[in-house]
Specification:
This protein has 24 helices and 33 strands. The chain is an alpha+beta fold. The strands form 7 sheets. An 8-stranded mixed beta barrel has the order 14-15-17-18-20-21-22-23. Strands 2-1-6-5-4-3 form a 6-stranded antiparallel sheet. Strands 24-25-26-30-29-28 form a 6-stranded antiparallel beta barrel.
Length: 729
């Protein structure tokens, strides 16, 4: 088909020679059509036309050949069936989709479209055109269709797409880069601010990634980052946008998710998945990750605020011992200064021998005899009182103190154990940082030689975090320790996905079942009891001992005994005690401990001594919260509160907990939460949801007129004295 046929149909076939040898006038139709034919055949561009219904009535033959389609199969088809506007091309010039342009009868100027007709002849890479066209009307103003031109821009457009992807995506992992994530977060927060919707920002930083780079090389580090990216994608799925900001930093944007219970579960899953070993060039590498979480609008409405607060939470997670997640809270801003003070105090404590070791017994269930004492470090700060090892050990790991403290603990524990019967072992915890240090073997050797303790009476307790780093180096350390004759125990077993691989490769003598399984082993809707039984069976099959940790109540003891647990450690037998107390028991020949504790396990209670608000009807009271658990709290300072009263506790920061009064004793009330609290990632508890600042602001305005009824309860002064009252189950 030639273009002249189409034009003759428009002009009625009229035409004449223009007469001039070099000039073609508008009257010289034939020569004008000849030029148009030459234009089409040259491949510079093509022509197309539609009728009033949008059906294709003309297309250049060269164009059809380029599309690998016979002309007759293209004609009469709706042009919108042949071409479509790709979403990635929109936005540059505020373009509208092709269908919108045609329906509105707008003029089309250099719009990028993709050939959309499918078929065997169209397999391969897509074809991209730039099309232009204008609507044609007759003298009566009736729409006749479109007349237009087109050209193939496939090569240029694909190059542009590649350049655009390089500008917005990380070339190593294929994830969004910092630029794209910044734009995405900014646009999301702007849109959600007006809609009063929530958006969560998660920051991830890989733990011990530098060690992989240093030991296996940068190419191995790059491969590790690619595998990390794929694992994050599998966990997050389509719920959010994932980006790599550079180095070993990753970011996740999760729109419309503010449930801190679900966010905690997601974070734990990320931590566990990313902590599984990686196979790189026939070598094994193990790393970890720390996670910081900030949620808009609670933790910031603007992008910079949310990013800064997520960074603060990440910093707190790393300083809290790594392999953890933290939610942002306002008090994190003082954590850096607090950490510096504690580090200085810890140095003084080590220099002045202010650290102590207390010993908790491991008991054999068949006769209640003590077989091992685990050495647990204690620090009684002169001003702050007892500071938890969960607080000061991570600080020691971040500084150069952990090896000094670890060496001190090994020496002291071995010396103390020499005063015990030879049937009793001593167990000492070895941190991942101390395990990876080049002096570990010398430190253990010195502790044994200086004390005279037999090597098989020393048990080193290790967690899965020691497997982070080069697999060959780790195997060498294990061999050296076993050559010394010491025993090895895998602590906190079952909390990671990769525990079985550790058992296959490491020469452990004992497995310690993590207390998290014991905490819920009596709950019928949990599988914890079955997991404990499976771990014990696995341990026996491998010729290892098993110790079940954290047994506090008789109902738990009954369950774990029923699972054939041979060794138990927990408060039902004894808390950690000083060396003086241990020696006193041994002097009386008393190495048998009869279990003693509550009949039933109840959720952990935490002493908090914190001022909170208590809301009832349209009144707010101030009270003191003395204890807190996942399911309830103990409140002091309100009189005349009947059992069964419904209250709302204002725990600050938009945290409102609906509860019911279950017990009353004078001005003290025990309440049970309607929805259990969840972990805040820092060893504390928080509500799953928070009340949006938008809602809190509107509530404040609604109550400007003051209370509408008389208060039913009497608010009384409180003092920080110990009080006991049963919690709700």
């Amino acid at each position: 088909m030639a273009v002249s046929r189409l034009f003759k149909s428009f002009t009625g076939g009229a035409g004449a020679s223009g007469g001039g040898a070099a000039v073609i006038t508008s009257a010289d139709v034939n020569r004008r059509l000849e030029i148009l034919d030459d234009f089409e055949h040259a491949g510079i561009g093509w022509l197309w036309a539609t009728d009033a219904e949008g059906r294709l009535i003309y297309i250049s033959e060269n164009a059809a050949e380029k599309l690998n389609q016979p002309v007759q199969e293209l004609l009469a088809l709706p042009i919108t069936q042949l071409f479509e506007t790709d979403a990635s091309t929109l936005g540059e010039r505020s373009e509208r989709p092709l269908n919108f342009q045609l329906t509105a009868r707008n003029r089309i100027v250099d719009q990028t479209v993709r050939f959309a007709l499918s078929g065997p002849q169209n397999e391969g890479r897509p074809t991209w055109w730039s099309i232009s066209g204008h609507p044609k009307f007759d003298k009566a103003g009736e729409f006749q269709g479109y007349r237009g031109s087109a050209k193939d821009i496939t090569v240029e457009h694909e190059r542009k797409l590649v350049d655009s992807r390089l500008a917005e995506f990380d070339s190593l992992t294929g994830l969004a880069n910092r630029h794209r994530m910044d734009k995405k977060l900014e646009s999301t927060l702007a849109a959600y601010k007006s809609a009063k919707r929530s958006c969560t920002l998660i920051m991830l930083d890989l733990d011990r990634f530098k060690a992989v780079n240093d030991t296996l090389g940068h190419s191995a580090g790059d491969e590790l980052l690619r595998q990390v990216a794929r694992r994050i994608e599998r966990v997050v799925g389509s719920r959010g946008e994932i980006g790599r900001l550079g180095g070993d930093e990753f970011q996740i944007i999760l729109p419309d998710l503010d449930d801190r219970g679900k966010l905690g579960e997601l974070s734990n899953k990320l931590i566990q998945i990313l902590s599984q070993p990686y196979n790189i060039d026939d070598k094994r590498a193990t790393i970890g990750t720390s996670i910081g979480i900030a949620i808009s609008p609670y933790d910031g409405i603007e992008k910079l605020d949310l990013v800064d607060n997520a960074d603060l939470a990440l910093y707190a997670a790393k300083n809290g011992g790594r392999g953890q997640f933290r939610f942002y809270s306002a008090d994190l801003k003082d954590e850096a200064a607090e950490r510096s003070l504690l580090e200085e105090g810890l140095r003084d404590a080590l220099a002045n021998e202010a650290l102590e070791l207390h010993y908790q017994p491991v008991v054999r269930t068949e006769d209640n005899m003590v077989v091992t004492f685990e050495a647990l470090m204690r620090w009684d700060h002169p001003e702050r009182g007892l500071i938890s090892p969960d607080v000061f050990v991570p600080i020691a790991e971040e500084s150069d103190l952990i090896n000094q403290i670890g060496a001190w603990a090994l020496n002291r524990a071995c010396m103390d154990a020499m005063a015990w019967p030879k049937s009793v072992r001593v167990a000492v915890n070895v941190s991942a940082a101390q395990f990876a240090h080049s002096d570990l073997i010398d430190t253990v050797t010195h502790a044994l030689e200086a004390s005279g303790l037999e090597p098989d009476r020393l048990e080193l307790e290790l967690t899965e975090s020691v497997f982070m780093g080069d697999g060959e180096t780790i195997d060498d350390i294990f061999r050296a320790l076993k050559d010394l004759g010491v025993r090895l125990a895998l602590d906190d077993f079952g909390t990671g996905y990769s525990s079985l691989s550790y058992l296959r490769s490491a020469p452990f003598d004992k497995i310690k079942v993590d207390r998290t399984f014991v905490d819920s082993c009596t709950q019928k809707d949990q599988n914890s009891a079955k997991i404990i039984a499976a771990i014990i069976g696995l341990s026996e099959a491998l010729g290892m001992e098993t110790t079940v940790e954290g047994v506090e109540a008789f109902d738990q003891l009954e369950v774990v005994r029923g699972m054939n647990a041979r060794f138990i450690q927990g408060w039902i037998y004894a808390k950690a005690m000083t060396q003086e107390t241990v020696l006193g028991r041994m002097a009386s020949g008393d190495l048998r401990i009869i279990p003693d504790g509550p009949l039933r396990h109840r959720p952990e209670r935490r002493s908090v001594f914190r001022r909170i608000g208590v809301i009832h009807d349209d009144h707010r009271y101030e009270a003191l919260m003395r204890n807190l658990s996942k399911t309830g709290a103990l409140i002091d300072g309100l009189l005349n509160v009947p059992e069964g009263t419904g209250l709302v506790l204002d725990l600050s920061g938009g945290q409102l907990a609906v509860c019911t009064v279950t017990r009353v004793q004078d001005a003290m009330i025990a309440v049970e939460f309607e929805t259990p609290l969840v972990s805040d990632g820092a060893g504390g508890l928080c509500t799953r949801h928070r009340v949006s600042p938008y809602v809190m602001a509107s509530v404040g305005h609604a109550n400007d007129d003051g209370p509408k009824s008389k208060p039913l309860f009497l608010q009384v002064a409180t003092v920080s004295t110990h009080a006991s009252i049963d919690f709700p189950d």
